[in-house]
Design goal:
Elements lengths: L1 E5 L2 E4 L4 E8 L7 E7 L6 E6 L6 E3 L7 E6 L4 E6 L8 E8 L13 E2 L3 E6 L1
Parallel strand pairs: 2-11
Antiparallel strand pairs: 1-3, 3-8, 4-5, 4-9, 5-6, 7-8, 9-10, 9-11
């Protein structure tokens, strides 16, 4: 599965961005999806994840209440809506797919990764 993440950009603190992730060549059927991010000089960290149905979601404490993950299985996409962005949200954001209907916070549990999209939040 090749994943394509898009929607990153340069915004100011308090602004919103919408990241999308879509696979090329196949459906996301049966896969749970996650978003991770990696800031310069830091390790990759969990941001959010959703089950195959989208009925179960999980968020890192740092983004809870500001970010929303959703999936449109009919369109075969996963979206991360990011509101009230902060400078500390600046990172490369990666989407990932896991061959399980259950989401996970652990990067090692994901089987496929996108190439990343850069989000820069200026103060």
């Amino acid at each position: 599965v090749q994943l394509q993440a898009s929607g990153g950009g340069l915004v100011q603190a308090g602004d919103s961005l919408r990241l999308s992730c879509a696979p090329s060549g196949r459906t996301l059927s049966g896969y749970s999806m996650g978003w991770f991010r990696q800031a310069p000089g830091k390790e990759r960290e969990f941001v959010s994840a959703a089950s195959w149905s989208g009925g179960s979601t999980d968020y890192a404490n740092s983004v809870k209440g500001r970010f929303t993950i959703s999936r449109d299985n009919a369109k075969n996409t996963v979206v991360l809506q990011m509101n009230s962005l902060k400078p500390e949200d600046t990172a490369v954001y990666y989407c990932a797919a896991r061959r399980s209907v259950r989401p996970s916070r652990f990067a090692s549990n994901y089987d496929y990764w996108g190439q990343g999209t850069l989000v820069t939040v200026s103060s």
